[in-house]
Amino acid sequence: MYVQTVDFKSLHASENFVDSLRSTGFSVVKNHPVSPDLICDTFREWEKFFAGTEKHAYTFDPCVQAGYFPFKSENAKGYTVKDLKEFYHYYTWHGLPDGLSQNTVHLYEILEEVACTFLGWIEENTPQDLRETFCMSLPDMARHSRNSLLRILHYPPLTENEEEGAIRAHAHEDINLITVFPAASTSGLQVRDLVGEWHDVQCEPGEVVINAGDMLQMLTRRYYSLPGWVKTLAFRRRLQ
After folding, report:
1. Range of 61's domain?
2. CATH assignment of the domain containing 79
3. Partners of 26 in the β-ladder
């Protein structure tokens, strides 16, 4: 098992993308339309946000799950130990913290368009009998959806006093159609294969990672089944 890196501009991009998604649940895409400069500029703005204390003024509203989620707010299903991360949920209807530019909005918009392209690839390579069961096209399910979000993740430096068993993100599946995320600023992403072995996902700066979610699996009657789970072990050696 291995996650394929697909060239967005290749003549066989859609077939290679879907082949990787079906065999591993993941794909890495290069030469895509998302500007690396936009990604870097957006990362820098959020780095400053997470470094400040004002972030707590934007703590999430439990009723809508939007806003800032403090360090160790979340644990994966089946785990009691909290993940070592903090994050912000941006929705188009919720807005951004004061002091941030429109870079996040622009990044969200281009990621949404790219996600719709990927969903189009998935639909094109899905058997006709399954496509006929869809209530609408896959791209239309995601385009301009109020339920789509941009999750900005931050992994603060570790202290060497972390709780036993704590990692950045425990093994989990995503619940959505697909997740699209730019390569992180450090390594650590892993996926699990059918026999339970974990594999590092190789992803270079500027590339994007895509993984299939539970909704896609259910919608396609497990044609896009999820052979593996994902976890993040950033700075793994310091946790051992």
Report:
1. 5-239
2. 2.60.120.330
3. 211
Q: Per the confidence metrics, is the pTM higher than 0.85?
A: yes
Distances (CA, A) of 132 to 18, 122, 170, 228: 19, 14, 36, 27
Burial class (CB in 10 A: 0-12, 13-18, 19+), 205: exposed
Q: Along the 240 residues of the chain, how does pLDDT read in single tens digits? A: 578 899 999 999 999 999 988 888 889 999 999 999 999 999 999 999 999 999 999 999 889 899 999 998 887 777 778 888 899 999 999 989 999 999 999 999 999 999 999 999 999 999 999 999 999 999 999 999 999 999 999 988 877 777 777 667 777 778 889 999 888 666 677 777 666 777 777 788 889 999 888 899 999 998 987 655 555 544 333 332
122: its two tokens: 């998935």
Number of domains in the chain: 1
Residues sharing a CB contact under 8 Å with residue 136, sequence separation 6 or more, in sequence order: none
